[in-house]
From TrEMBL, chains A, B:
<keyword id="KW-0963">Cytoplasm</keyword>
<comment type="subunit">
    <text>Part of the FGAM synthase complex composed of 1 PurL, 1 PurQ and 2 PurS subunits.</text>
</comment>
<keyword id="KW-0547">Nucleotide-binding</keyword>
<dbReference type="InterPro" id="IPR003850">
    <property type="entry name" value="PurS"/>
</dbReference>
<keyword id="KW-0067">ATP-binding</keyword>
<dbReference type="Pfam" id="PF02700">
    <property type="entry name" value="PurS"/>
</dbReference>
<dbReference type="GO" id="GO:0004642">
    <property type="term" value="F:phosphoribosylformylglycinamidine synthase activity"/>
</dbReference>
<comment type="function">
    <text>Part of the phosphoribosylformylglycinamidine synthase complex involved in the purines biosynthetic pathway. Catalyzes the ATP-dependent conversion of formylglycinamide ribonucleotide (FGAR) and glutamine to yield formylglycinamidine ribonucleotide (FGAM) and glutamate. The FGAM synthase complex is composed of three subunits. PurQ produces an ammonia molecule by converting glutamine to glutamate. PurL transfers the ammonia molecule to FGAR to form FGAM in an ATP-dependent manner.</text>
</comment>
<dbReference type="GO" id="GO:0006189">
    <property type="term" value="P:'de novo' IMP biosynthetic process"/>
</dbReference>
<comment type="pathway">
    <text>Purine metabolism; IMP biosynthesis via de novo pathway; 5-amino-1-(5-phospho-D-ribosyl)imidazole from N(2)-formyl-N(1)-(5-phospho-D-ribosyl)glycinamide: step 1/2.</text>
</comment>
<keyword id="KW-0658">Purine biosynthesis</keyword>
<dbReference type="InterPro" id="IPR036604">
    <property type="entry name" value="PurS-like_sf"/>
</dbReference>
<dbReference type="GO" id="GO:0005524">
    <property type="term" value="F:ATP binding"/>
</dbReference>
<dbReference type="GO" id="GO:0005737">
    <property type="term" value="C:cytoplasm"/>
</dbReference>
<keyword id="KW-0436">Ligase</keyword>
<protein>
    <recommendedName>
        <fullName>Phosphoribosylformylglycinamidine synthase subunit PurS</fullName>
        <ecNumber>6.3.5.3</ecNumber>
    </recommendedName>
</protein>
<comment type="similarity">
    <text>Belongs to the PurS family.</text>
</comment>
Amino acid sequence: MANNYHARIYVTLRSSVLDPAGTAVESGIKQMGYSGVEGVRIGKYIEMKLTAEDETDAKTQLDRICDRLLANPVIENYCFEIDRLVSG
Amino acid sequence: MANNYHARIYVTLRSSVLDPAGTAVESGIKQMGYSGVEGVRIGKYIEMKLTAEDETDAKTQLDRICDRLLANPVIENYCFEIDRLVSG
């Protein structure tokens, strides 16, 4: 029987990869007067619903979706959290 | 005395706003064979370190940074989590 899950996926640049967008945002924040801000890194946050047999199946689907579509494994890491949606 | 905090910020499109990028990703996922995926929404995930007097000060700084720089309040919501970094 299929279950419904809600997934929250975080895709971040690997720490060894430069983040020019993050640097630009950090510069903007400092110009606002917040000099104590540093290490700004910008990633992606993706939400979706999916149906799966069980939690293991949901994780397998999400691993493939992240590896092949959402993240570039050469320069990005990903992680995700899933919750089972209970109807009723 | 200043404390160091680590912030994780999530910027998401308001639910009333269309997300063409999310729709495109959802179409791609379905073409991979995962027909049970729906409601894909793409947002931003931002990490940074900041110094602040206390947690209240850190939240005030982050609210201003999000309102004025990271999110467009007309079409986006934001939320954040902060952790105090303990040195030693």
